[in-house]
Amino acid sequence: MLNFLSGLKKRTTEWRSQLYLSRICLPFNYLLWRGTSNNASKKPSEKGYLLHGLRQLFGKYLYITNTVTSAAIMGFSDILQQHAENVHGGRQKYVFDWKRTLNMMEVGAVQGILSHVFYLILDKQLPGTQLSTIAKKIAVDQIIFSPICITIFFLGMQFLESRSWESSVQELKEKFLFVYVVDCIVWIPSQFANFYYLPPRFRVLCLSAVSVVYNMFLSFIKHNNV
Questions:
Q1: Which of 7, 36, 91, 208, CA to CA, is 20 to 30 A from 42?
Q2: What is the pTM of this model?
Q3: Taking Cα atoms as reference points, which of 176, 136, 134, 140 lies closest to residue 155?
């Protein structure tokens, strides 16, 4: 009876995780879940090859997937932000700076690499989904990793824009606190859901989805005098 209840609890937890993923961040996650229950002896179909490819991306090639995804999300966010600045900024002529977007993508790639490594280490050091463990993970993330990411963003962008070290540090001092406060408001609830519901290999991808809006905010703060 105890074994049955334990198995039922495990299945319920897995189902809840899959449902959460399919609803907020991975539309194809249901296919991945269905694919795991198929008979392995069946002849592979086109759908089977697709599922195999997706599992490879989120398994063997997860490092590359997280890096490319983070860079792409950062670039997409900047494109949206530049469009908003052109439409709502009172400009007489539509101007788009592709170099700025490329710089954002390069910084996003660096952050994707760091996020991949950081969350792997964090899950090894603090395994489990108990509330106390999640609270510790969020505390480590916000106290240690968030300041690092904010610093890398501003200094990295300044470096790619060929700004002086003094100018880079000055901008970081002026904007760090405000960005960090917003970071906490956005990421503390997001990270709770991230650590509580999602398996490790999907975390950077789902954080990148939340990052679309947050990165638009970063792009605005970086490229405007506020």
A1: 7
A2: 0.71
A3: 176
| Number of neighbours of residue 152 by Cβ within 10 angstroms | 15
Please tell me the distance from the alpha carbon of residue 165 to that of residue 134, in angstroms, as a whole number. Answer: 37
Q: Which residues contact 106 (CB under 8 A, 6 or more apart)?
A: 71, 156, 160
Task: For 134-187, write each residue's pLDDT tens digit.
Answer: 899 899 999 999 999 999 999 999 999 999 999 999 999 999 999 999 999 999
Residue linked to tokens 């890398």: 152
Contact 212, 73 (CB under 8 A): yes
pLDDT in tens, 186-209: 999 988 887 778 777 777 677 767
> What's CA 63's distance to the chain center, in Å?
13
Alpha carbon distance 146, 141 (integer Å):
6
Judged on CB neighbours under 10 Å (0-12, 13-18, 19+), 176 is middle
Selection from 212, 207, 175, 180 nearest residue 194 by Cα: 207
Helical spans, DSSP H, in the chain: 2-24, 29-36, 46-57, 62-88, 98-125, 131-140, 146-160, 165-197, 203-223
